[in-house]
């Protein structure tokens, strides 16, 4: 069932989005060689608690952590670990904030120290793909328009689009209908309506798009060891265009 959010629901989700942005900005300061993703996980949970919020994914279907921390060839749902990040790594931190029942979801990828030129380009192309998808999130457009814009850009730059994981509706739970694939055909799929709140979260690989699962049953990684990048925003469909609720550059 697809729900369209009330003004009050959107306000609560926006408050969660504002806190999520604040959290990501604190995480960005922590990213450097030598830090562990478990340290980041501990920080995030405490930071949210101090601000009256909780990490919504902790306990969701048994997931044990406040964040997902996916390093290099991990596509998504990477477990935080005690292994220090090293110079040249690429890490995606993904989190869902619950503030007074309002939810917001955003993943951001960070370079650890100095990364190579291909890694830099992969990050840039993935971020651009996200925003090209968001441009299509308009009243009357279709879900296929979002995926087509992302796929066309990423594949045009020589990278591949993960198909096994998608964006989704959000609120009142983490994963709601509809699914938002990051590939597809224009003018196909469900028509977008005012008040829908969705995530767009392309995962773009430098090699093959296919994934394999770790033994933990959560972490997906590339089949060829290539790196994977993800950027994600939560946004609401409005009559004036998409409103990004997790925008880090509002000012």
UniProtKB/TrEMBL annotation:
Keyword Zinc tagged: no
Domain of life of the organism encoding this protein: Bacteria
Catalytic activity: Release of N-terminal amino acids, preferentially methionine, from peptides and arylamides
GO molecular function: initiator methionyl aminopeptidase activity; metal ion binding; metalloaminopeptidase activity
Residues annotated as binding a divalent metal cation 1: 94, 105, 232
Top enzyme category: hydrolase
GO terms (BP aspect): proteolysis
Name recorded for this polypeptide: Methionine aminopeptidase
Organism encoding this protein: Oceanobacillus bengalensis
């Amino acid at each position: 069932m697809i729900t369209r959010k009330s003004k009050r629901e959107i306000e609560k989700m926006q408050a969660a989005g504002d806190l999520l942005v604040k959290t990501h900005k604190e995480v960005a300061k922590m990213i450097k060689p030598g830090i562990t993703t478990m340290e980041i996980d501990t920080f995030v949970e405490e930071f949210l608690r101090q601000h009256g919020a909780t990490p919504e994914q902790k306990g969701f279907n048994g997931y044990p952590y406040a964040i997902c921390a996916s390093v290099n060839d991990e596509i998504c749902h990477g477990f935080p670990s005690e292994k220090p990040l090293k110079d040249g790594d690429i890490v995606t931190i993904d989190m869902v904030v619950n503030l007074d029942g309002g939810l917001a979801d955003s993943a951001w990828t960070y370079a650890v120290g100095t990364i190579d030129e291909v890694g830099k380009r992969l990050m840039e192309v993935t971020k651009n793909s996200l925003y090209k998808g968001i441009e299509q999130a308009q009243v009357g457009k279709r879900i296929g328009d979002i995926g087509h814009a992302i796929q066309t850009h990423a594949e045009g730059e020589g990278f591949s689009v993960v198909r096994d994981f998608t964006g989704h509706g959000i609120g009142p739970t983490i994963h709601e209908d509809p699914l938002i694939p990051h590939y597809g055909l224009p003018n196909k799929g469900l028509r977008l309506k005012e008040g829908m709140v969705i995530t767009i979260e392309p995962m773009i690989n430098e090699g093959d798009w296919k994934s394999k699962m770790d033994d933990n049953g959560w972490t997906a990684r590339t089949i060829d060891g290539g790196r994977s990048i993800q950027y994600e925003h939560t946004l609401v469909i409005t009559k004036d265009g998409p409103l990004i609720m997790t925008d880090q550059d509002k000012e």
